[in-house]
Amino acid sequence: xxxxxxxxxxxxxxxxxxxxxxxxxxxxxxxxxxxxxxxxxxxxxxxxxxxxxxxxxxxxxxxxxxxxxxxxxxxxxxxxxxxxxxxxxxxxxxxxxxxxxxxx
Length: 104
What we know:
This protein is mainly β. The protein has 1 helix and 7 strands. 10% of the residues lie in helices and 50% in strands. The model has no long low-confidence stretch (mean pLDDT 87).
């Protein structure tokens, strides 16, 4: 009986699903790593890491369907990391992220 309960619990779908990200990058000579993260049902995060030898200025645009896009900006020195977040007013199904960076 115990084995049946364990198997049934493993077959149940998980209640929390991460939403997908579509990432489009225009790095223009900058060496930037882009990572995305789902922070809940209506919050998205983007981490930018500058692996280059020069500072970079980045502009991140996060879109969730018909809502107005959230724009975040960061200036990254060489070796620096920036974490940018955006909260949406409706539940997120998919986030489209556009990252545009240039060496400064």
